[in-house]
Design the sequence.
């Protein structure tokens, strides 16, 4: 019966807040589904701000320490999420740059999974 239903707030402010929350959630986690977000959560990255602070390379390396068989597709997805691009575009257009940065980070003795970012040389 309709009388038993909880009241829904249809005020303009409530609807704008709902729409804003939805758009932000979709935009901010572009490319990153539940499994990717779970892997990020395992390494202490819960928000886009934390991912942005960490950077795609460092985040990928941190995840890989906990999930050794993680695919490079996660790296493409992380970079895409940070730049608002589909992971397929990143894989096609930024692959070489990211692989070189990844190799540099792996060789850098200053890199630490505890630090937000690898120290720039």
Sequence:
């Amino acid at each position: 019966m309709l009388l038993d239903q909880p009241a829904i707030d249809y005020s303009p402010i409530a609807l704008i807040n709902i729409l804003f929350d939805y758009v932000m959630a979709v935009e901010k986690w572009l490319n990153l589904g539940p499994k990717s977000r779970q892997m990020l959560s395992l390494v202490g990255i819960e928000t886009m701000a934390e991912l942005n602070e960490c950077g795609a390379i460092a985040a990928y390396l941190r995840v890989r320490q906990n999930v050794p068989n993680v695919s490079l597709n996660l790296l493409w997805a992380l970079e895409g999420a940070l730049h608002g691009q589909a992971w397929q575009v990143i894989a096609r257009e930024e692959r070489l740059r990211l692989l070189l940065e990844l190799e540099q980070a792996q060789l850098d003795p200053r890199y630490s999974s505890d630090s937000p970012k690898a120290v720039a040389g």
About this structure: The helical segments are 12-28, 34-42, 48-54, 56-66, 72-83, 87-93, 95-107. DSSP finds seven helices and no strands in the chain.
